[in-house]
Design brief:
Rossmann fold, eight-stranded mixed beta sheet, alpha+beta, 22 strands, 13 helices, five-stranded antiparallel beta sheet, binds S-adenosylmethionine, 446 residues
Length: 446
């Protein structure tokens, strides 16, 4: 008995040596939001099998996105399915979410697997062609009651809004908070492309991706992402905003994309407000810069918890200072120095996280230098023309009872949580010898 078993094992081992094992990622041309991850001993044969599926349309061509040789394909396949189960379609064992970021996760995981042998093929990103749409029947500007300047200004504003957050910045910030705050919560990303916008999956929001990827780990109940279809209904196709709802079941994830009639996807659309007020627990996004004031107003009035990115200078901007005075918002842990432009190139940014979630033990608070006024070096303290004290370089006069002006840094580093308050609802604009110097925030010891 033992000898037969031994013999069988030897044969199996010999076969295994002769047969190479592959892991592949394949995609159908008509289903750009999905891919299949599988294993095979014969890549050519498997691709032919995919392309011969009965009932499949002729235009739906399967192509490999990635293939590699591994030592134990079943093990690697199981590991990847386990690791990315949150990206797995609920109805299928092998269909996974596809977009450029998710694809990168899969490949990085496979390539760093201890059973990985060598890469056979990786599809490089194709350059998408710009499609020019010429609409001959557009009425002239005067008939539409707008000027050329209005159009240019609007175009510039829209362009300035199209910057995207990198997933690393989201990971870095969220890692700072107590994980329990997310448990059983519905996260609402109300300015985000959830999976793709059908034409360009490169625009998938890193917020959506982050929460899908960490859905189980954070213990979320639901993720809702709403996508802005643009304010103008160009060809009377109906507003193209959508709502993406994502839940996780024991069988995998279930993502439903809905295009309600007339829904713009704007954060102030009645349907978005309904989700905000009735379903959302925590709002998390990077809202459009051009509409940040309206966005903050709606968000703060909702009374919901939030963690968002906005301009770092908001803490000394007249439109936002009242929120800081009323402790309706405070700064998060990190600044955001880079965004991605629509071509996925890194560009410099002046972003900052803002929140009303508990911020505990701010590491940067130690950059605030408390000391008696007389000990602050002369070059970092001066009085303006109205005898208000201005202090710079992170110095705070701990024995000073009157209001004094500080720059952004102490506010960002948490001075409002350390016994100081803002005492003027507007930015403080000091003059020295009749000349305006840079604007600050007027604070006072409580
Ligand atoms: C700064 S980008 C950030 C996108 C994404 N949240 C991220 O962090 O990568 C702001 C996005 O808001 C979208 N947007 C513009 N107006 C909007 C509105 N009224 N409601 C919702 N989103 C809007 C823009 O199209 C743009 O993609």
């Amino acid at each position: 008995m033992e000898t037969i078993l031994q013999k069988k094992t030897e044969i199996n081992m010999k076969e295994a040596e002769d047969t190479k094992q592959y892991i592949y990622i394949v995609q159908a041309s008509l289903e750009p939001s999905w891919c299949k991850i599988g294993k095979t001993n014969d890549l050519d044969r498997r691709l032919k099998e995919y392309n011969n599926i009965t009932g499949k349309s002729k235009e739906n061509i399967y192509q490999y996105l990635f293939a590699c040789e591994v030592q134990d394909m079943t093990q690697v396949e199981n590991d990847i399915k386990d690791k990315y189960s949150v990206f797995k379609q609920v109805k299928s064992k092998e269909i996974f979410l596809y977009n450029t970021d998710a694809f990168k996760f899969y490949i990085d995981f496979i390539k760093s697997h201890k059973l990985f042998i060598k890469e056979i093929f990786t599809k490089t990103e194709e350059k998408k062609e710009d499609i020019k749409i010429v609409k001959k029947t557009t009425p002239p500007l005067n008939e539409r009651g707008i000027t050329r300047k209005d159009v240019l200004q609007k175009a510039q504003k829209v362009k300035n809004d199209e910057f995207y957050t990198q997933i690393e910045d989201i990971e870095k910030e969220i890692a700072m908070y107590d994980k329990n705050i997310w448990k059983e919560k519905c996260v609402f990303c109300n300015c985000d492309d959830a999976v793709d916008d059908e034409k360009d999956e490169r625009r998938t929001s890193a917020f959506a991706l982050y929460f899908m990827k960490n859905f189980k780990e954070l213990g979320l109940k639901k993720l809702i992402c709403t996508h802005y279809g643009g304010g103008i209904d160009l060809f009377n196709q109906g507003a193209k905003g959508y709502i993406y709802t994502y839940i996780f079941t024991k069988d995998g994830f279930e993502g439903i994309k809905e295009y309600p009639k007339g829904y713009t996807g704007s954060f102030d659309d009645p349907l978005s407000l309904k989700i905000l007020n009735e379903e959302a627990d925590i709002i998390c996004t990077n809202p459009p810069f051009s509409k940040a004031r309206d966005y903050w107003k709606i968000l703060i009035e909702s009374g919901k918890k939030f963690l968002i990115i906005s301009n770092i200078t908001n803490v000394k901007n007249d439109a936002y200072i009242p929120y800081f005075i009323k402790s309706q918002v405070w700064t998060g842990y990190n600044s955001v120095y880079e965004f991605l432009n629509p071509k996925k190139e890194k560009v410099r940014a002046t972003g900052r996280w803002y929140t009303n979630l508990p911020v505990i033990d701010r590491p940067k608070s130690k950059n605030i230098k408390f000391m008696k006024l007389k000990d602050i070096p002369e070059k970092f303290k001066k009085y303006d023309d109205t005898k208000i004290l201005l202090v710079d370089n992170g110095y705070i006069p701990s024995n000073y009872k009157k209001p004094f002006a500080v720059s952004l840094a102490p506010i960002l580093n948490g001075i409002l949580e350390m016994g100081y308050k803002i005492v003027q609802e507007k930015q403080y604009r000091p003059y020295i010898n009749g000349k305006e110097v840079f604007g600050r925030i007027l604070v006072q010891k409580i």
